[in-house]
Inverse folding.
């Protein structure tokens, strides 16, 4: 069994996420999202979907990127 790095639950069905050279252990997707999802730099929501990256900054969508003065950003649908 392994222990979730967010909630500390010692659970037999934890899973690992390998990202940027690090290994993270979680017991549920909620904990993984809590730890790993980027945060929109305009509205502060956790970005669970694709999001938008502009000039090294992350936004939940084009509307927030434009609100921060990023030009030419459009949502892909």
């Amino acid at each position: 069994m392994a222990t979730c790095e967010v909630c500390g639950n010692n659970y037999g069905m934890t899973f690992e996420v390998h990202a940027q050279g690090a290994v993270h252990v979680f017991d549920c997707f909620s904990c993984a999202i809590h730890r790993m999802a980027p945060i929109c730099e305009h509205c502060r929501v956790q970005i669970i979907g694709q999001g938008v990256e502009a000039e090294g900054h992350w936004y939940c969508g084009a509307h927030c990127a434009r609100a921060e003065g990023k030009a030419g950003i459009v949502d892909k649908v």
